[in-house]
Amino acid sequence: MDQLGFARLQFAITTIYHFFFVPITIGLAFLLAIMETIYVLSGNEDYKRLIQFWGRLFLINFAVGVVTGLLQEFQFGMDWANYARFVGDVFGAPLAVEALVAFFMESTFIGIWNFGWDRVSKRVHLLAIWLVAFGTMLSGFWILTANSFMQEPVGYKMVHGTAQLASFGALLTNPQLWVEFPHTILASYLSASFFVLAVSAYQLLRHHYSDLFKFSFRLASIVALISAVLVIFAGDLQASHLRTSQPMKLAAAEALWNTTSMHAPWSVFAIVNGRTQKDYVQIQIPDMLTMLAYKRLSGSITGIHQIQAQYAQKYGPGNYIPPVAPVYYSFRLMILAGTLMLAISAYAVYLLKRSRFSEKRWFLKTLEWSLILPYLANTAGWVMTEVGRQPWVVYGLLSTARGVSSTQSVPMADIVLSLIVFAVVYGAMAVAAVYLFRRYIHWGLDPTAQQPELTDEEMFLGGSHV
């Protein structure tokens, strides 16, 4: 591990941790807005207690997400100073809009929503949570605008060795943005729906306010199924776009070492050896990769070795092959988790139609454990996206090795020390977040009531739990 390795490790750990909370925040705000709309239209005051319960969990998630997110931009100037200088003029616009418009918008209306239950009218209060939901989505849009530039640089010009913004409109119309943004938002709705399903299942198993948690269970099941189906289509569009925007990432995701014929199979599973550059025990579906990439049954997919030769000629000598095994397996882990969520949500909706979901205790217990699926899918998707872009930090423009801070400005010892400090602080935040989540989940709809201590079996990480 050299300085570059530690800098990458630190950014990966802090970003993955932050991304645990972002999709739940975006999706839960949307579900809260739907719940409150039903509450206002129906006039059922019991729904208010349910919304406040989910609101408390949303606020915990939002608070931890904000704190962990603040560190990301600081790292640009600490460990990645050369990268910050290179893209600062381009990144400045979308990140400034995200902070000054989207983040302040959602923070302001979260305050109105949280403290305004008996201070503003129901319709104003409802408008506040819809603006929160819109603000979280808008915040994601601007962050992904910046990330899309790293994946597919557009709207820039090179001046004295740095990228400067030439067209803000080009950033907003970046093809990568419009395949990445829908996939991320729909995945957020799916993630939050499974969060609600898992917690609702926990309450239903213990017969806590069953009628109200049946309502949240129904809503989450329907949103989860719709989101799971749409995520597949959005993900398919994003994967197809890789054929032209990042062919090396597509080849690495399939462990495709050499160019295929006009009928490329899709690798369901294989044992990938990056050192020998061979795949073993392959299970394949004929023609499927061609179909996914071209939406027809004929079309060749360029292999890793051929793309390496093209890049060496285009960019100069060097190794342009990303770590193939992590990209390959993370892609399949994401697909597996997404498929399981589709199957579970479809079965949940099926039970809804038969009004028998509360009788299936085995299924409710399965739903408790299914909470891990969206976290696995989101993390695996992020790893595939970012690791698959290597060795570039800005694709085709700036290598990751050139983006890291110099050893003179930021010694490796400082990076290691900050990594240790961040690990300790983030670990403490994780303990606090888990403690608050399990307490409020166990307390249910009345957090002010005297509650018994949790048993070992009801701890968050053991026994029958969420």
Describe this structure in words.
The chain has 466 residues and is mainly alpha-helical. The protein is built from 16 helices and 6 strands. It folds into 2 domains: 3-245 and 324-458, no CATH class; 247-322, no CATH class. The chain has a two-stranded antiparallel ribbon with strand order 1-2. Strands 3-4 form a two-stranded antiparallel sheet. Strand 1 (156-159) and strand 2 (162-165) form a beta hairpin. Helix 3 runs antiparallel to helix 4, helix 7 runs antiparallel to helix 8 and helix 8 runs antiparallel to helix 12 (324-354).
Provide the descriptors you would attach to this structure in a database record:
single chain; 466 residues; mainly alpha; two-stranded antiparallel ribbon; two-stranded antiparallel sheet; 16 helices; 70% helix; globular; disordered C terminus; cell membrane; Cyt-d_ubiquinol_oxidase_su_1; iron
